[in-house]
């Protein structure tokens, strides 16, 4: 920060346009912020040695207190963040004072949470009000998604963090409970997926989908039901294959191979898996994807011979994709390239080849 803050000057005056966000509903005086920092230090710094812990808490509070030099009022959590960035050098502290430095991040997270909640008491009041309106007697993290309270979750996730940097749901729930008493449950963190546990989870979701509609779809079912499981499966090297993206003139190293994933799940899952979503051209479809989908269509229709008119009638989006993205140098549709890429019997049963 190039300019020096003068006594009583509000930080908003010198922060460039676009980097200053919403003011708090209740600006905090310097003394209030100092107390919130001391509270964060008292909770975050834990040691058996009473004298050592008292000294370290004072050190950490002093380090963050430097950010308040010449500032008498904090009006937004963003102004506090700018001050910390300008006055607290974490990397240098690791060199100069390693014992104190190990607590800097923890105190930083908790001080920010304390200051954010003090600046914006309406955020907890709003959440409590929403729970009351819905007559909810208990809630959890998924309640935000189910009720469409995305903005509320986004603010809390960004600003209310525990010492380890995770979202401090227990503090949030405690403060909500002071306004609107209700239960809160937080699921334990999931254990890391193994290959077998990931495949078992996929089988369970696919089984439910097949029982309901006769087939399962990776995105519509697994991704929708369990995003974490979906991402674990598609990130595995054994389940990826080379890919290019001619439709957006960009190249990626690989893409998910759901046929491999289905094979690993079991033969019955290959038979019941559906990848094509008729009438909706995937944004990131590439040539290999399109050929796979064409093969799926022909397997489903099972004609003795086939033509592009048949494809257009039954899957207009796929037909349009080939027209738009698979063209020869003479700017005509490269049907030869498409047909050669198809597996038998479809490569030889195109009516012009018969």
Describe this structure in words.
The protein has 354 residues and is mainly alpha-helical. It folds into four domains: 109 residues, no CATH class; 64 residues, no CATH class; 86 residues, no CATH class; 78 residues, no CATH class. The chain is built from 19 helices and six strands. The strands form three sheets. It has a two-stranded antiparallel sheet. Strands 3-4 form a two-stranded parallel sheet. Strands 5-6 form a two-stranded antiparallel ribbon. It starts with 27 loop residues before the first strand and ends in a 13-residue tail after the last helix. The N terminus is likely disordered.
Short synopsis of the structure:
The chain is mainly alpha-helical and 354 residues long. The chain has 19 helices and six strands.
Low-confidence stretches: 1-20, 247-251, 278-284
Shape: elongated
Largest sheet: 2 strands, antiparallel
**How is the largest sheet built, in terms of strand order?**
1-2
Structural class: mainly alpha
Give the end-to-end Cα distance, rounded to a whole number of Å.
Answer: 75 Å
Radius of gyration: 29 Å
**Strand segment count:** 6
- % residues in beta strands: 5-15%
- The overall pLDDT average reads 79
SSE pattern? EHHEHHHHHEHHHEHHHEEHHHHHH
Number of helices: 19
Share of residues in helices: 55-70%
């Amino acid at each position: 920060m190039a300019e020096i803050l003068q006594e009583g000057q509000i930080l908003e005056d010198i922060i460039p346009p676009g980097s200053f966000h919403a003011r708090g509903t209740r600006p905090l005086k310097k003394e209030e912020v100092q107390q919130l920092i001391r509270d964060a230090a008292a909770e975050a710094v834990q040691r058996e040695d009473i004298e050592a812990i008292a000294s370290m808490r004072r050190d950490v509070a002093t380090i963050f207190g430097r950010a308040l030099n010449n500032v008498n009022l904090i009006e937004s959590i963003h102004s506090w963040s700018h001050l910390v960035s300008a006055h607290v050098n974490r990397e240098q502290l690791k060199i100069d004072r390693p014992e104190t430095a190990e607590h800097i991040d923890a105190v930083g997270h908790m001080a920010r949470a304390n200051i954010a909640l003090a600046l914006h008491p309406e955020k907890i009041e709003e959440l409590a009000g929403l729970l009351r309106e819905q007559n909810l007697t208990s809630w959890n993290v998924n309640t935000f998604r189910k009720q469409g309270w995305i903005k509320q979750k986004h603010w809390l996730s960004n600003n209310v963090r525990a010492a380890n940097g995770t979202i401090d749901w227990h503090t949030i729930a405690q403060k909500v409970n002071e306004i609107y008493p209700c239960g809160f449950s937080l699921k334990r963190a999931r254990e890391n997926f193994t290959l077998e546990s990931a495949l078992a989870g996929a089988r369970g979701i696919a089984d439910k989908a097949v029982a309901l509609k006769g087939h399962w779809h990776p995105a519509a079912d697994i991704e929708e039901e369990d995003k974490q499981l979906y991402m674990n499966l598609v990130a595995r090297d054994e389940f990826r294959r080379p890919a290019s993206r001619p439709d957006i003139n960009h190249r990626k190293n690989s893409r998910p191979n759901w046929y491999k994933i289905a094979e690993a799940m079991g033969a019955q899952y290959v038979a019941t898996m559906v990848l094509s979503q008729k009438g909706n051209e995937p944004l990131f479809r590439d040539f290999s994807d399109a050929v796979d989908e064409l093969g799926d269509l022909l397997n489903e229709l099972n004609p003795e011979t086939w033509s592009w008119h048949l494809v257009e009638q039954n899957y207009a989006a796929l037909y349009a994709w080939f027209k738009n993205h698979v063209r020869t140098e003479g700017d005509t549709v490269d049907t030869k390239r498409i047909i050669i890429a198809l597996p038998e019997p479809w490569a030889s049963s195109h009516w012009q080849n018969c």
